């Protein structure tokens, strides 16, 4: 299965990314010519979504390898790229894989080939993970179910069909009677701008709702299951995701609706014990005070704009991964799945 949306293309040692800031109005690719361009694209949300950020960062290292061709300089570049967005762990995971690969290589040509090949592998590997998550997660969805999702977790956020979106896409192929709801996801409107765009591009019917309507639809028994993606998952299963996810999980619990998370193992951060340790990015206040460049609030008002929140594991019915669905005592199940896993 393949999405009809392609957010990143690597060809002839060039990196092209679909500028997600322009969607759904315009489909335009931006060429990233250097690792500095990659940092800009990640910071300014030209690309977004934890897995796709990691893939883009890996291609940024490949561009830097062509520019510098020495391990010492690439270590400095890696530090710069890692600072572009602090919450999504996939970025660090991808960069660290590349640094490990070139740790003892001194030949410029070999460094370039090694970094480029690893970046391509990270891209293809994520596509495979998405496919498997889709297969596992689709088993959770009953015929004709009402499904609610938040933010964007499809091809625009990954290297394949998506995480939570990929689960829905896979289930929909077998059951087009599914009722799919996408929350708008203020303040960047990733649900309204991007998720609805992907559903339409893939020929899937969906209903857009305001974030504030989610609890109402749960109460009216129109929602049977909630599924989100994740930007970082702690060792105990606490999960950081786009702001607004935590309140969905609490509302789902109150209404006896299962809340699931879909994320590849590259999103897990076993170095942190709980979600309290996850750094939460605070973004520009204009994302809250303005819509389409027009100010919507009183001048001088104080603003908070956290980009993510953390959902405690007690609210999560299961975590869909490429290795299967984790549930129960997450400290144990997460540890077990990683003990079985071998990183290539």
Topology of this protein?
Layout: E1 8-11, E2 14-18, E3 29-32, H1 35-43, H2 50-68, H3 71-82, H4 89-101, H5 108-138, E4 146-149, H6 164-174, E5 179-183, H7 190-201, E6 207-209, H8 214-219, E7 225-228, E8 232-234, E9 239-242, H9 245-254, E10 259-262, E11 268-269, H10 286-289, E12 290-291, E13 294-295, E14 308-311, E15 318-321, E16 324-326, H11 330-340
Parallel strand pairs: 4-5, 4-7, 5-6, 7-10, 8-11, 10-15
Antiparallel strand pairs: 1-2, 2-3, 8-9, 9-14, 12-13, 15-16
Can you characterise this structure?
The protein has 344 residues and is an alpha/beta fold. It has eleven helices and 16 strands. The protein has helices at 35-43, 50-68, 71-82, 89-101, 108-138, 164-174, 190-201, 214-219, 245-254, 286-289, 330-340, and strands at residues 8-11, 14-18, 29-32, 146-149, 179-183, 207-209, 225-228, 232-234, 239-242, 259-262, 268-269, 290-291, 294-295, 308-311, 318-321, 324-326. The strands form four sheets. The protein has a seven-stranded mixed beta sheet with strand order 6-5-4-7-10-15-16. The protein has a four-stranded mixed beta sheet with strand order 11-8-9-14, with helices on one face. A three-stranded antiparallel beta sheet has the order 1-2-3, with helices on one face. The longest helix is centred in the middle third of the chain and has 31 residues, at 108-138. It is globular and about 65 Å long. The two termini are 24 Å apart. 49% of the residues are buried. The mean pLDDT is 95.
């Amino acid at each position: 299965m393949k999405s009809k949306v392609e957010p990143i293309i690597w060809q002839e040692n060039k990196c092209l990314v679909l500028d997600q800031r322009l969607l759904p109005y315009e489909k335009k690719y931006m060429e990233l010519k250097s690792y500095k361009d990659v940092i800009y694209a990640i910071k300014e949300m030209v690309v977004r979504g934890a897995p796709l950020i990691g893939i883009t960062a890996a291609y940024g290292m490949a561009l830097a390898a062509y520019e510098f061709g020495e391990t010492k300089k690439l270590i400095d570049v890696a530090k710069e790229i890692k600072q572009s967005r602090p919450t999504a762990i996939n970025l660090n995971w991808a960069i660290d894989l590349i640094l490990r690969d070139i740790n003892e290589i001194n030949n410029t040509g070999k460094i370039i080939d090694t970094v480029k090949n690893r970046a391509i592998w990270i891209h293809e590997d994520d596509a495979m993970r998405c496919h498997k998550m889709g297969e596992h997660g689709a088993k959770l969805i009953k015929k004709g179910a009402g499904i609610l999702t938040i933010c964007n977790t499809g091809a625009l956020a990954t290297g394949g069909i998506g995480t939570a979106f990929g689960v829905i896409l896979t289930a929909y192929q077998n059951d087009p009677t599914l009722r799919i709801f996408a929350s708008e996801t203020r303040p960047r409107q990733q649900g309204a701008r991007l998720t609805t765009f992907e559903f339409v591009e893939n020929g899937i019917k969906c209903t857009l709702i305001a974030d504030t309507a989610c609890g109402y639809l749960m109460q009216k028994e129109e929602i049977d299951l909630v599924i989100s993606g994740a930007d970082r998952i702690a060792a105990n299963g606490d999960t950081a995701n786009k702001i607004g996810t935590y309140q969905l999980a609490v509302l789902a619990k109150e209404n006896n609706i299962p809340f699931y998370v879909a994320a590849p193992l590259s999103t897990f951060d076993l170095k942190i014990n709980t979600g309290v340790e996850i750094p939460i990015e605070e973004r520009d206040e204009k994302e809250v005070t303005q819509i389409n460049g027009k100010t919507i609030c009183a001048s001088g008002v104080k603003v908070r704009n956290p980009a993510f929140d953390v959902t405690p594991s007690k609210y999560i019915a299961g975590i869909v991964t490429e290795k299967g669905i984790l549930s129960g005592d997450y400290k144990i199940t997460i540890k077990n799945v990683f003990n079985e896993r071998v990183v290539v």
